[in-house]
Amino acid sequence: MVEEKKFENKYGYFTEDGREYVITDPKTPRPWANIISNGDYSFMVSQTGGGCSWRGNAGQNRLTRLYQDTIKDNWGKYMYIRDVESEEYWSAAWNPVQTDYDEYEVRHGIGYSVFNQKVNGIKSSMKVFVTPNDPVEILEVTVTNESDRVRKLDLTSYFEWEAGKHPDEHREFHKIFMDTEYDQDMKAVKLEKYLWGFPDKKGLANNVDWDYVGFHAVSQDVKSFDCDKETFVGMYSDEATPEGLEADKLAENQGRFGDAAAALQVDVTLEPGEEKTVVYTIGSAAKGKDEIEGVNNEPEDADKLIQEYTSVEGAKEAFKEVQEFWSELIDAEKVDTPDDALNFMTNYWLKYQAISCRLWAKSAYYQTSAGYGYRDQLQDSQIFLTSKPELARKQIIAHAEQQFQEGDVYHWWFTIGGGGPRTKCSDDLLWLPFILDAYLKETNDYTVLDEVVEFLDGGEADVYEHCKRAIEMSFSRFSPRGVPLMGHHDWNDGLSAIGPDMKGESFWVGEFLYMILESFIPLAEARDDNKFADKMKTVKENMKEAVNEYGWDGEWYLQATTDAGLKVGSKENEEGKIFLMPNIWAIMSGIADEERTETVIDSINEYLLEDYGTLLNYPAFTEPRTDIGYVTRYAPGLRENGGVYTHAATWSVWAYAAAGEGELAYEAYRRICPPNRFDNPDEYMAEPYVTPGNSDGPLSPMFGRGGWTWYTGSSQWLQRVATNWILGVRADYDGLIVDPCIPAEWDGYTMKRKFRNTTYQITVDNSVHVNQGVKEIKLDGEAIEGNKLPDLDDGEEHQVEVTLG
Amino acid sequence: MVEEKKFENKYGYFTEDGREYVITDPKTPRPWANIISNGDYSFMVSQTGGGCSWRGNAGQNRLTRLYQDTIKDNWGKYMYIRDVESEEYWSAAWNPVQTDYDEYEVRHGIGYSVFNQKVNGIKSSMKVFVTPNDPVEILEVTVTNESDRVRKLDLTSYFEWEAGKHPDEHREFHKIFMDTEYDQDMKAVKLEKYLWGFPDKKGLANNVDWDYVGFHAVSQDVKSFDCDKETFVGMYSDEATPEGLEADKLAENQGRFGDAAAALQVDVTLEPGEEKTVVYTIGSAAKGKDEIEGVNNEPEDADKLIQEYTSVEGAKEAFKEVQEFWSELIDAEKVDTPDDALNFMTNYWLKYQAISCRLWAKSAYYQTSAGYGYRDQLQDSQIFLTSKPELARKQIIAHAEQQFQEGDVYHWWFTIGGGGPRTKCSDDLLWLPFILDAYLKETNDYTVLDEVVEFLDGGEADVYEHCKRAIEMSFSRFSPRGVPLMGHHDWNDGLSAIGPDMKGESFWVGEFLYMILESFIPLAEARDDNKFADKMKTVKENMKEAVNEYGWDGEWYLQATTDAGLKVGSKENEEGKIFLMPNIWAIMSGIADEERTETVIDSINEYLLEDYGTLLNYPAFTEPRTDIGYVTRYAPGLRENGGVYTHAATWSVWAYAAAGEGELAYEAYRRICPPNRFDNPDEYMAEPYVTPGNSDGPLSPMFGRGGWTWYTGSSQWLQRVATNWILGVRADYDGLIVDPCIPAEWDGYTMKRKFRNTTYQITVDNSVHVNQGVKEIKLDGEAIEGNKLPDLDDGEEHQVEVTLG
């Protein structure tokens, strides 16, 4: 059977169903990685086999990291295959040995990666994944003898223990607290560390254990082991040519005086044609020592975890669980449109990226997160709304907890030990009511408003009150003309010097707040909080006027004014003339009337809609501006400085659709949908199956280059704007709106959509080839009024036929 | 002429005069480095050619670092030599290419290192040093054609720009603010960076430039260049096999969109026997932008610096200046004893280590300092007392500035932007009066007491008052029985959990304070500060009693009591029974009477004086103790946990000498004097020419292994105890004491000693072979009374003949 390859290029392709991306050349322009997580334990693996792992829920993953490697700007747990007779060795992934191969492919899937290789007549297939229910990652290695003689091989695993460290020159400080031990009975090596970078409950530094036992085990008898980087790698060698493989057996160092690493060597002898599977596990078991404020790990039993998973059967069972685990999270909604890129990304990869990396692992190759971002994971949690809204609810509560009584919040926070920066960022706090509204629309679960949550500085209140205080705090920071102050920055962190003296304004925050008031006023009224409702109504009216009066620049809206009163994002400026955010949100929020919407759309089309998406501003700043902020310090065209900042670019899809511009909405989507970049991988450089944080703008010599993939808030939003705004299926308080805004060329599309307790099988017929306009909807064969599906709440599946025209 | 080699082993040897250490095998057990500094600009270079550079005076050198390399756990600026015809290339030092060589040696000297090599018939000699007066390092590369045919070579330099970064995953954040440029006229590449990890004067993060222009220039026409790590090294290659050397010319990338590096390639064609020299420079010129509180760099001109030094003549002139510069700092005192190890270390290497690394560079391979340690550089500054006491005075003032009005001080501080941890460490503050006394004895310069210095929290006072407040603050933290509280820790930082509740006591602090009061009482009396003098007298008397009553354990002194009242360093303990510090300082301070001194000496001999020096405690802790502190978290035998902590071990030399134990004082010295470890380099591992911070104690499987060299407070003290306590020549308020306490075996020694405005040529005659006891001293042929040389203050040199007996 020949596999049908989609979006194929010289580096790889999507499988026909889009559930796997197959890399065929390890020398991709950048690491094309997979970020694999079960919500607690996470790891990263690149197409070369590099990677690292950490306990993900804890945030601060530098401090919870289990292992990493330091060579080649890449991390790794490595697997060596050695022909014992010829003494040749290679690796089961391309790194670290980088041997010439006869066959090589890496299959990145949802929750796993597989490295298939043929070298020296030996086929190897190494599957890596993390068990859904325990902090254990599994390396299932199958070797097949495709030569015509008996082959005596050994397999040798290797990685450096990391055990949660702060930055440290050459591991010289932290390694001296590590203790390794070989456990013959368990066929395992184990690690403890007597120092963790957190203060104890008295506030004393360097006085607690790393709260885990690290382990590395193998499913068959150990031929030899080593726990010392120095003897395995060698002081003047590296992982490509480790000294440990120059001898028959490894050095078998262990204890407290080496440079903690883990290597397990096993013999595998294969008859011609024979195949054998060896299972390795790596994991960490909490000691549950309760030595640190905020860390109350339940004790876990390393030996039990080793026994459960370190066998061929255990690994098989665990992999089945992985598949079920992810199916629950991503299969509640499925679309089938004429655009495979949209289908693959919407059905699998964007959900996976948002959940596995962004919400759970919280780190990737380019960026290591310090904790939860207040705005970030709150927005991301919308990815759960269709499949598991209870997880979105949990996220809302978690963020409400990070608020002070006055209403402001931590810009981000640590989950171990707590704490974070309390800033005068002007939008952080408002995301709570914003995301709350999406949750209410999807679930109709108003009980969340009554959930009582503590403040950081004492006292407690229900979620309604938390939201109210956020809004009130925002109200207390307006300019004399009624526009929200910029403060330390708004959504665009790089606008960091515009408003520190609390004079500069952000028109975008005005629009954002306007939109929030729209949904919060009815909540206040429903609770008879009439005084506050009235206040909000007044502010809302005034805001529309103020933004339109002071924020209008003639052909578009301004981004801001500075403390010194200068306009930012104005035709008066030579650089940063026009910013995307205040213009698309003017449309999304309804601040802009129909005429201004048209004018704004024209301006966006003229200045911002570029080949690879909508730019965040134009033209880029070419010199640092100490009165604007560090956005001006990026190279022109890079990231927030005149590049396509993908997170914001997704909202331009929403804005175009809200303006009824079906072709433009699709264009704005198509240009940032990663598989569409398959035909120029050396320019794009980034993975084709996840979103990048940014793509270079036209002033960059690498125009169109994708940057900082995986850990970006764009994944959830790109999924959401496709379903909610292009396909037009979006939740409302009293039903499910169906209002497609699609390319006229499309004949239609189908979509399976779970909404609360009901599943709708929607078929949209666009045989008349319009962009928009629902002519008729039949629900289970019966025509309904309007374009909103009722909440049938019957646990059944229903057929919906939609005709455009 | 055959060079006489001293302390030769398989890795290298000292030259006959001890001024150079020559490494003949690059695969030393650990990096055997040189730390080269001019007091402002510093760099490290290992025997493999690895290294990094930074502006040293600034402290926080992660943030002022100019370049570094990331492979092989080693840093580097690299120099490739390529045979253009054969396309073979190798490096002028062993790294990164690690080519087989016909000859290889590295000569580490005072202020320079030279890499001599012969590969493929080409001799190369690369001398690296930093100019004394400017932030410029020089690489003078001489290549000689020893083959019998014309050789067409090119030289290619390479390093990664670092430009002051915080820890950052794979340089992904910081690299995007760097900007490189090739300057054809200057034959140079330059670097700017538009972000530095400090807040601007408003407190805004990410809003200032890195305040330097980095440059790299070469003395002859550039064949090609590259400023991009990715094109030079290659995404999946490394510095050993850089892709840049696969082509005739380098890629010539520059600008803001690469991964900033520097490579300059020049052609060198050599007739048989011909020799040519190429000079490369690397440096940084301050922009002087004055954007950050506490940074007022004077603007420097990169082009001027390039022109001055980037030529064969410029380099020669600069190297002459280097030699004069260091001669001034180390040649004011010179000893000649029967012990070459003592001579080499005392005359050159310990002074060099203390000044170049510890006071100036403030970082080394194992440890990167965050700034100035309050105690650390104050003690180190004693190294200047003989040669340039004005530099010690400057250091005293600098530390007085880091004091709060209440008398306590920063445990360490940042020089850029200020700030540091204000702790309840119990000894930090007392080092100011302690070192002041050494300064007064050496210089008789009492004007320092009147120098007015600001406090950190406002106000100012003279240095006398600063010292007084330190003492008064210490007085306010006594236990009810009159012993100083441990607080957050004493000199032993790892005793971090003994006294945080301000109940636990430190007997060592009692002794230290006692010694300080001895010297401070006369200062108070001289200023008619009689009330304070009386107070000090009372405390002093009481302290002697309290330590002797509560601190005496029967055969030795206790280290401490904990907040819970447990004894630490007592025969009642199973681990940490006896600590070195309270016992040697009881002798040094005079707290112990003659009988207890004898008892204590016996106990030290029995438990602590081991093969490689005196242990800090015995036996080592084998389990973490949350009531003692992180010292118990080190592996048993490592560092402060039952190892030889060299800094403290030097004081045991003092104590033995103060007790009149000439043989033991010399033994305690000999065992930690690095050249003496030449016969077991694979066990010792560390450089033979600088002190290590520690050596493993007997519980370590690597008993005797040296660790954490160069950046250690032991260098200055090992020099001082040799001259002041073994050779017995030490300054007093009214003259220079000569009181040798030497091995009886010695026939004598000579010493040149500058004391204030006079130079004494001292010859000690021990033909009767005693340890101690001056029978007669002749000054310029005339016998004098007693054993104190008068302060002749005549600018002349005088002959001193000392006869022991």
From TrEMBL, chains A, B:
GO biological process, one term: carbohydrate metabolic process
Keyword terms of this UniProt record: Glycosyltransferase, Transferase
Domain Glycosyl hydrolase 94 supersandwich residue range list: 19-310
Domain Glycosyl hydrolase 94 catalytic, residue spans: 325-728
Residue ranges constituting the Glycoside hydrolase family 65 C-terminal domain according to the UniProt record: 730-768
Molecular function in Gene Ontology: carbohydrate binding; glycosyltransferase activity
One Pfam short name: Glyco_hydro_65C
Top-level lineage group: Bacteria
CDD domains in UniProt: GH94N_like_4
SUPFAM superfamilies: Galactose mutarotase-like, Six-hairpin glycosidases
PANTHER family recorded: CELLOBIONIC ACID PHOSPHORYLASE, CELLOBIONIC ACID PHOSPHORYLASE-RELATED
Protein's recorded name: Cellobiose phosphorylase
Lineage: Bacteria, Bacillati, Bacillota, Clostridia, Halanaerobiales
